[in-house]
Structure formats: C-alpha cells, structure tokens
Amino acid sequence: MATFTRMVKGQMRCYSAPVDAAIPASKRKYIPTSGTYPKGFFVSGTHVGVKASNTKFPDLALITSETPCSAAAVFTTNKFQAAPVQVSKKILNATQGQGIRSVIINSGCANAVTGKGGLEDAMSMATKVDEYTGVAENGTLVMSTGVIGQRLPISKILSKIPEATSSLSSTHDAWLTTARAICTTDTFPKLLSQTFTLPSSPGRTYNIAGMTKGAGMIHPNMATLLGVIATDAPIVPSALQSLLKTSVARSFNAISVDGDTSTNDTVAILANGAAGGAPINSTQNDDYVVMQNILTSFLQSLSQLVVRDGEGATKFVTVRIQNSPDYPSAQLIASTIARSPLVKTALYGRDANWGRILCAIGYTQGVAPGTVVPERTSVSFKPADGSPVLKLLVNGEPEQVDEERASAILQDEDLEIIVDLGGGEKGELGGEEGIDWSYKATDAMQIWLTKTLSVDNNTSQRGF
Length: 464
What we know:
Largest sheet: 8 strands, mixed
Strand content: 15-25%
C-alpha cells in the first residue's frame, strides 16, 4: 500500500494556482521586471475576497483612462453567455465604442448562468466605476472569471470599488498587481508591454500593454479567456474593432488547451490617443497596416503565455502546416492535428510516431479538393537547439529514422513539427505563399494552437 501511495503521488498534478500564490521557478522567466505603459492609463489590483478562501490576494482589477477611449471587444460564442459578456456587449452597442473609460474585472466567480440577478450585478459594477471615475453612464466594460452558476458577493465588490479607484497607479508594479488580480488557476500573472511607431509620425513613440488570464477551458472560437489591451495610439472605434478581430483570430482564437470554450471569454482593447498624432480612421492607410502587424504580433506573444501556463503542460510544441493552397484548409488540418488524442499521447510519451500526425491530416474533413495528396506530403521534427531537422516522411516516402535522435529531440520542452503539404501554387493567398499554422502542445490531454503565415518555404513569419 505504501508503494502504491507513492506511485499515485508521483503521478498527481495540481491544476490550481498555488494557494500561497508562489510562482513556480520555471515560470518566473515569463514575468516582466519592468515595462513601458501607455500614457493616460492607470490600473489597480484590490483584494475583495470574492472567494472566501482568498484572504489576502488581489481579485478585483481596474484599468482606466483619464480621458475617453475608443473601445472594441470580441466575445465568446458559447450560447450560455455570462452576465458581464451580455452587459459589455450592450454598453459597446449603445456607445458604438466611443467614450469608454474603464474595464472592471473580478476573479473568483464567473457570474455566469445567474439569471436576471447576475445581469443586475454586472451592471451595478459598471455603474459604480462610472460614478467614481466621473462618467455619466456606459463608460465601463465588465468581465468576470471563476466558478459558473454562482452569484457574485456583489456588496463586497461594490464596497471595494472606491479603494480600487483611489489606488490607481501607472507604475509597473501596479500593472503587475492588476494582472495578478485576474488570475484563477493561472500559476503566474501574464503581462506584456512594448513601444512602437507609426508611418505618419515616425518620431513619435506609442505604447501598448496587455494582460490576460487563462490556463484551462481554452479552445478556439473567439478569445477563449480574458484579456485587456490598452494603447495610447489614436484609433477610431470602427478601425479598432477591425484590428482587434483580425488580431484575435490569429492569436487568442488559435490556441487550445482542453477543447472547452468558456461562457465568459472576452478580449477588449482601449485606445485613448494620449500620445497624439493622426488618428487611424481607415483600413486603407499605412498606419492601419502597420498597426495590424503590431497588434497581431503583440497578441500572439500574449496568448503564448497562456500556452506556457496550460493546465498539465509538459511541452511547448509548434506544428507548422506549410504549402496549403488556401487558408481554411490549413486551419482545418492544424485544428484536427491539435485535437487528436493519439498525437497528444505520442508527444507526451516522447514517441516519434509520425503516423499519428499523418492519420490526422488524412481524416481532416472539409478541406479543399487536392489539398492533401499523399505523394507530396512531408513530415519533419525540428529541434529547439537549432540543429538540422529530422526528416520522417518526404513526399509520401518514409525516411530511415534515427530513433535515438528522435527520442532525444522529444525530451526537450520545446519542439517543432513541420508538415509540408507540397501545394500552394495557386491558393487564395496568391503566388507560392503557403499557410503556416502552428500549435502549441501538450501532454496526454493538453494541446495548444496558434497560427502564423509563412512567406516562403523556410517558414519565416510576418503579422497580417
């Protein structure tokens, strides 16, 4: 019995954040020690105790701008949409994305499937923030995360909003505390920031910052978690919504951990224009194109932090689908590989069984005719150390695989699997550009999916 007990303990994994909020040593490298944050934005993380077991850690996040912002958001497609999702949608529709000042987020309770009372609770959170930030109405978006089916301790939350507003700050520590306040089963706060320039104002520096949370219930079909992005670039609401929708589709909407899409998924962006310059008011100008690349790349990096913190994760595996004649087919194939239980178990078991990858490609439904041709399909492993790729299948012909080297490659935390479909002569992208989907993977039950575009057969990447 003692031997059995030791064996079981050796196999157990904890899928909850440490109760003392200690960050695992392996995750500390993902936490920024400094940042460059957008002008005019202030944030705070406040302890409420939404969950009775939380006696000291921040669980109420507030992000606000000193001036009105353009705002945009994407939401879950789950039919059981949580109260904060419904309320935020209503506010954005009423304002057309203009004049938004704040985002208020609680962790510890999702306020999902809570009926009319839940809607009233979400609206009261927004109204209370408006009151303390000097907005008449419809100036605050609301998000919640945590347990489904339970009402918020709304009195406790509302009583802490004055403290949340009085402790607003623009320091790096404040941003990090705010990112910590939205965590649930996350093992580390997820925060990024960067500077950038736009063609119309080459001498002007803009800033963008973002925080996200997520470790479970992560799967494509909107944003798959919570995220807030703030920038001091001037962007009109219609352009901002277009920018966000495209960027999310290529970042947050292309990651998967466990195949579940939550009731609360929301990614929102605020742009206050505090850094000045000409507003981005069209999808046709150079500033828009550059901003699209910047935002897509930024959100890809932010979403990969979720991948790194996936519940039960043991590896970070990128699978690149190259030379598909069109985008939808590549998307279907990549998604099928990502969901394959046999691919997941092979990766977790460090088994170079490329036949499982091939099978997933072969049974993918809905791809364009001629996309998958066995005689021109190739599969390879690309090691993380930069050494040459290990070819497994070339144009439908199996290679003599060095099993020892394959096993060594699979020992590493990071791995890249390359699937070349050998097509792409005349796809919807034109020319010889191929689609490059990458998914971040996994142990036996976890897998992640992200996507980029290959501009050549060497898988160089670009935002789009």
